Amino acid sequence: FFSTAESLTANNLVLAVYRHVTNPECRQYLLRQAFEEAVHTDTFIYCCDSLGLDPDEIYNMYLTIPSIEEKDNFVIELTKSIFDPKFEIKNDQDIQLFLHDLIGYYVIMEGIFFYAGFAMMLALKRSNKMVGIGQQFEFIMRDESLHLGFGCDLINTIKSENPQ
């Protein structure tokens, strides 16, 4: 799930969210976050390679494991409005759709799904197994915590600027 999820995340940032956020500081953070997501993808690739896992099998699991496919489809459905190239923020309904998609992306994807997925690797590290990979997951979790915090701040700022 992680390798495809990080790609979905980076695409979401660069292709969808960025064009609707106009604050220069927020845009800079979005670019930083996209870079960090690329680093996370490389880290997952490195971990899989280190364990001798078949890359084709790993990166295509979303096609062969129904629960991963369902999770990916769920996230895509949650954020479909902002991926529509014709989507523009012109009125209150558009702001609501944008907020809906940001919540789906930041709270559900960056928050719930990633944190739940990290639990197993972090438990192995606490048991003194796969310590190096566990440390990589701790670094990624640190970044994801910052991403989640930024996303919540962005959502709350948009809500306060648009109380309707």
How would you describe what is shown here?
The chain crosses the membrane at residues 103-124. Belongs to the ribonucleoside diphosphate reductase small chain family. InterPro entries: Ferritin-like_SF, RNR-like, RNR_small, RNR_small_fam. It holds the Pfam family Ribonuc_red_sm. The chain is an all-alpha fold and 164 residues long. The chain has a single domain, classed as Ribonucleotide Reductase, subunit A (Orthogonal Bundle), CATH 1.10.620.20. The protein is 82% helix and 0% strand. It is built from 8 helices and no strands. It has helices at residues 2-17, 24-50, 55-59, 61-64, 66-78, 80-83, 92-126, 131-161. It starts with a helix and ends with a helix.
Provide a count of the helices: 8
Question: What characteristic shape results from the CA principal axes?
Answer: globular
Task: Tell how many strands the DSSP assignment holds.
Answer: 0
Alpha-carbon distance between the termini? Answer: 37 Å
- How large is the radius of gyration? 17 Å
What are the SSEs and their pairings?
Blueprint: H1 2-17, H2 24-50, H3 55-59, H4 61-64, H5 66-78, H6 80-83, H7 92-126, H8 131-161
